Amino acid sequence: MPVIAQTSRKKSENITIESLFYSYKGLEVFRDFSLQAQNRTIILRGPSGCGKTTLLKLLSGNLIPDKAINMPSTENSCLVLQEDSLFPWLSGTENISIFTRLKPSQFKSHPMYELIAGFVDQKACQMSYGQRRLVELFRAIIFRPQFLYLDEPFNFLDEKRMGMVLPFLQGEFMEGVNLTMSNHHRDDLAMLDSANLFQFDGLFPVISIERLK
Amino acid sequence: MQSQTQTSTNKIASYAVPVIGIILMPAIWIALKQFGHISDRYLPAPADVIRAATEIDPNVMVHLACTACRLVSGFLLGTACGIALGIVIYNSKFLARLINPMLDSMRAVPAIAIVPFFILWFGFSESGRILMVVMGIAFNIAVATYQALKDMPEKHKILFKSFGISPRALTREYVLPRLMETLLPTIRFSLSTAMGVVIASELLGSQIGLGYLMQTARSTFSMHVIFLATILLGLLNACVDLILTRTWNKAVYWR
To answer: What is this structure's pTM?
Structure first.
């Protein structure tokens, strides 16, 4: 089965965070936070406002920690936000090929392409939220960065669509990729092979007592 | 059925209100003239103004057309130059450092203040006049362009970083559409600045145009001609602005 790979690279370590400090506008989001993943696929769980997105931005190098003893490399990391970030004035295909630097002929053979083939040639502004989400996920999956961070990847996707995407977030498609996803629905990811999954529940809402005073 | 009447009433209202707005000013004018007994020296009679439209030689429409040509060509050229300059300084940190201080001081000079320079440099030539408009608006548009590109939405910053691509490499695919989304208010403002420069340049030295018409009318105390020219200026600005916003909003079809 053709799986698009950028370059062959050596196997990287599981994600380790040691003693991370980060505050934003005087609000302490992480104080001495540590995480040791036992697997290459991580699910971050927790209620909204507990810092899942912030952690993903820190991991991908889009925010700079105040202090940390150990953080994974931010090189070769790709973060897909919850917010739709396709350029609405371009077609889905253009949005994919500009960023992955792949010609359409190079990614049309990917098995996940079937999911988007029906609408990918439309302008992004003509697509539904769910369709745009699929294009964004497809783009990130075929890009195969060393670290892939997906923030609530299944927002806007119904259960059926989600079930169709999940196979591409594991196995050979994620070979050489450290995948970290945030998720606030407990059951969403039950379909993922749990043997290779590291579920992390250690994030808590950051509004401290001092803040509330 | 009721909602249908509702929408048709709304439709009528949406057309009627602007029409009332347009009629209001002339109506006040006529009323003041009719009942206020204001002398012609201060407020000319509407009939005189209309008569002036047919009496001026060359026809007032020739003056209007000249002003419109100067305005539109200077405005288009100035907008293009401003956007190009803004993109260039955005693409080069070195140029940004080099040019930004100059740009900031240049755009602080009121557009009308450059008119005397240009008359000394270029005399009363048309190219000088158009260049004046370009100078008057391009710097502000360049600064707005640069700023719009620098203040990129966070999601786009993350996107470019994630895929290791610079927005500077995507002028056609990103920079220009992004500017289309953000620049319209600046450009509309520049249109009225451009109008100001054109009229000032015509007031100070020209043989034709609405500004010239006003200047000669002032020296002969022809208040009705000044009124006519002013009304035409207002209409010209409104028309160009309407065409600009309509075309622009069509071009930004994804909004």
So the answer is: 0.84
Residue B127: exposed, middle, or buried by beta-carbon count in 10 A (0-12, 13-18, 19+)?
exposed
List pLDDT tens digits, range B12-50: 888 888 888 888 988 999 899 888 888 888 888 888 888
Q: Tell me if B177 and A87 make a contact (CB, 8 A cut-off).
A: yes
- Is A79 at the interface with chain B, CB within 8 A? yes
Residue A205 in any domain: the answer is yes
The pLDDT of residue B254: 92
Q: Is the dihedral of CA A6, A11, A12, A15 positive or negative?
A: positive
Residue A60 near chain B (CB below 8 Å): yes
> Which ipTM was obtained for this model?
0.87
* Interchain pair A88, B254: CB under 8 A: yes
- Interface with chain A: mutation pick from B155, B158, B168, B182, highest number of A CBs within 10 Å: B158
Q: From CA A30, how far away is CA B140, in angstroms rounded?
A: 43
In chain B, what are the domain boundaries?
1-38, 44-251
Cβ–Cβ of B177/A79 closer than 8 Å? no
Range B183-209 average pLDDT: 92
Q: How far apart are CA B251 and CA B177, in angstroms?
A: 9
On chain A, the residues whose CB falls within 8 A of the CB of B163 are 78, 99-100, 143
Q: How many residues are present in chain B?
A: 255
| pLDDT tens sequence across A64-117 | 999 999 999 998 999 999 999 999 999 999 999 999 999 999 999 999 999 999
> By the CB < 8 Å criterion, does A57 face chain B?
yes
For residue A52, what pLDDT is reported?
87
A19-29 pLDDT, tens digit per residue, is 899 988 888 88
Domain of A50, in residue numbers = 39-212
State residue A213's pLDDT score: 33
Read off the amino acid at residue B142: A
d(CA A181, CA A188): 12
Structure tokens at A206: 């950051």
Interface of A with B in 16-55 (CB under 8 A): none
Chain B contact for A125, CB < 8 A? Answer: yes
Tell which A residues from 129 to 158 touch B, by Cβ distance under 8 Å. 140, 143, 145
Grade residue B245 by pLDDT with cuts at 50, 70 and 90. very high
- A-contacting residues in B 174-193 (Cβ below 8 Å): 174, 177
- When pLDDT is averaged across residues B193-204 and rounded to a whole number, the result is 92
Gap between the Cα atoms of A157 and A17, Å rounded: 30
Compute the radius of gyration of chain B from its Cα atoms: 23
Domain B44-251 maps to which CATH number in 1.10.275.10, 1.10.3720.10, 3.30.450.20, 1.20.58.1120?
1.10.3720.10
